[in-house]
Each structure stands twice: as C-alpha cells, then as structure tokens.
Amino acid sequence: MKVIFDCDPGLDDGVALIAAFGSDDLDIKAITTVFGCSTVENTTTNALKFLDFIGREDVKVAKGASMSMEGKTDIAPFVHGETGFKNIFLPETKNKPYEKNAIETIYEVVMESDEKTFIITTGPLTNVGQAISRYPDLVERIGGISIMGGAIGMGNKNPVAEANIWNDPIAAKIVFDSGIPITMSGLNVTFKAKVYEKEIEEIKKIGTPIAKLAAGFLQAHFEFYKAQGFDGDPVHDLCAVASLVKKDIFTMVHCHVDVETKGEFTKGETVVDLQNKYGKVKNSFICTDVDRDAFVEFLKDRIVKLSKSVYVEKEKIDGK
Ligand code: RIB
Ligand code: CA
To answer: What is the DSSP code (8-state) at residue 161?
Structure first.
C-alpha cells in the first residue's frame, strides 16, 4: 500500500513512525510535516533525523504548514518539550527537506502513483485540507485517510475538541467533507490504547537502538499523562497506523462526521452522528474500541521488524 505520512513529530508521532516503517505492507513515499506538537521547523527536523537514524533517507520529507488555514498556530511544549522530541536526542543530520512543500509533494506522490495512495495523519489536517482544496483531482486518487484526531463527546483542548482537529477545524472540515474514505481514531479509542510502564520496560529490553528509541518516546510521553493520574501511556498517533494495517484489533462504526468550525463553545468538535439523525452519507469509520493487548503486541512486532530491517549503526540513543 502506497502511503504518505502527514505528521507533527511529536513523541507519539515518533512511536507511530516506528510502527509504520516496521510494517512491510506500507510503502511510505513521503513524510509531510505540520505544526502541532512543536513548530513546523522542529517537526521537520525531527522527521529528517528520524529517517536518517533508521537509514531511510530515500523517503522525502516535505515541510508543510506553520499555521492553520485561519492563520493561527499553537504548539504543545508541555507535552512534547521544546523540540517536539523532549528529552530524546537523535543524532544531527545533514539531510534537508524536499524541494517541494507538503501540498505539492502530496500532489506529486499521489498523481505519479499507478495505484491509489493512502494518507496517515497524526497532526493538524492543514496540509491535506489545503492539498485537496488546491487539487480537487486528488480525491479520486486517494484510497483512504487514517486520521488520529477528533473524539466522540470529549476533548483535550476544550470539552469536546481534540487538539489535531481544534488546531485547524477548517482544514479538518475539508478533509471530512471530501468524500475520501476516512478512518478516525479519536480520543475515545486512543485513551484505551495504553501502553503500561512495565510494557515500556519490556520494549526497552528488546535492546536494539530502535526499541530503545521507542521506549524513550513512550516514557517521555507518559510523563505528561502520569502526572494527571493515568496508569499507562495513551499512544494516540499509533492508532492511526494500527487501524490501517491491523484493522481487526479495532471495533469500528460507520457513520457521518461533521466538523464544528464556528461554535462558541464547541469549535473543533467532531460531531459523530452515531444514530444517523441527519441521514447524511456515512463518511467515516470511527474506531470505538481496541484490543489493548493486541495493540501492544502489534507495536512490539513492528519494533522488532524495523530493528531487523534497518542499518542503525550510528550513535545509540541514551535518552539524555
Ligand atoms: O490529541 C492528541 C494529538 O495531539 C496527537 O497527535 C499528539 O501527537 C498531538 O499532535
Ligand atoms: Ca501528533
């Protein structure tokens, strides 16, 4: 399956990237970056360093939006630290972003492919929304979009809005209204997709640089949630990868989703029409539950697979 990974790495994006690159069934053609967990400068650098570390400099990194379609920007250093990768220091890289920006790269990759391309998104939907607006012929050429974003009746930015949608509701609306098949992993399911500390320790003990990197991302991400009383790390972004390549571990419902772009109290809400009140075309598969044990096994399996496939003979991650 040909894939573009649109992300704002980000600690949980980092875990999702490891799982995606450890999945042989995904042929990842480009990483496109966006603001979110940190500035787009930082998320782009993080993507470049990550690819260098795993020996996949052949994959394009295209820099994307620094702000939402409304011209707003918001980042989350309180979760992801000043750089986006908090206390995880990957080796420096000499590699540079692709000459085209994220919008042009999405169009190029999708149109030059002889089969439909899938998109995984783990950040604000600004790049994808703008690409679809500028190039409507993309719609027929994209096989599906697996989104980490949204929620059913809950939020982490306001009582009903999740950060990736709240950061750019206009772009999110364009994506949900596009007619492209969507799988949505919202907070309802991602808060169930937890990795416990003892499992983070097991991952670390796999012992490879990739496993240590994954454990470092998980532990650093968990620090934020542990302080709030969570008993495990909700690995939000990993759900967008797992629900694409390991669908059977999720429970999904098919229904219509609208995005609230203007609400005084509800801006950024994904209004999930579970009871089909509006009778609109069902545009999304919503993940409502996950087999947590299988989710953790999936992650371990992909860490082992990526560890075997890469040529990581550079500096080791020491988590400093
Ligand atoms: O709300 C969780 C999302 O916000 C995740 O994608 C996380 O990485 C941040 O972008
Ligand atoms: Ca993210």
So the answer is: B
Q: Which of 148, 222, 269 for a ligand 1 pocket mutation test, highest count of atoms within 8 Å of Cβ? A: 148
Q: Exposure string (b/e) for 185-207, b if CB count within 10 Å is 16 or more?
A: bbbbbbbbbbbeeebbeebbeee
> Which ligand is closest to the CA of 157, given by its number?
1
SS3 for 243?
helix
What's the predicted TM-score (pTM) here? 0.96
Give the residue, by CA position, lying nearest to ligand 1 atom 1.
163
Listed residue (11, 106, 16) closest to 62, CA to CA: 106
User: What is the tens place of the pLDDT at every residue in 172-204?
Assistant: 999 999 999 999 999 999 999 999 999 999 999
221 included as an active-site residue: no
Residue 64 near residue 127, CB atoms below 8 Å: yes
The alpha carbon torsion through 208, 210, 211, 212 (nearest 10 deg) reads 90
Cα(271) to centroid(ligand 2), Å: 21
**Residue 316: pLDDT over 50:** no
DSSP 277-320: SS-----EEEEEEE-HHHHHHHHHHHHHHHHHH----SPPP---
167 in ligand 1 pocket by Cβ < 6 Å?
A: no
Interior angle at CA 122, CA 119 and CA 127, nearest 5 = 60
pLDDT band, residue 311 (cuts 50/70/90): low
Q: Mean pLDDT, to the nearest integer, of 59-81?
A: 97
Integer angstrom CA distances of residue 46 from 83, 207, 215: 8, 22, 17
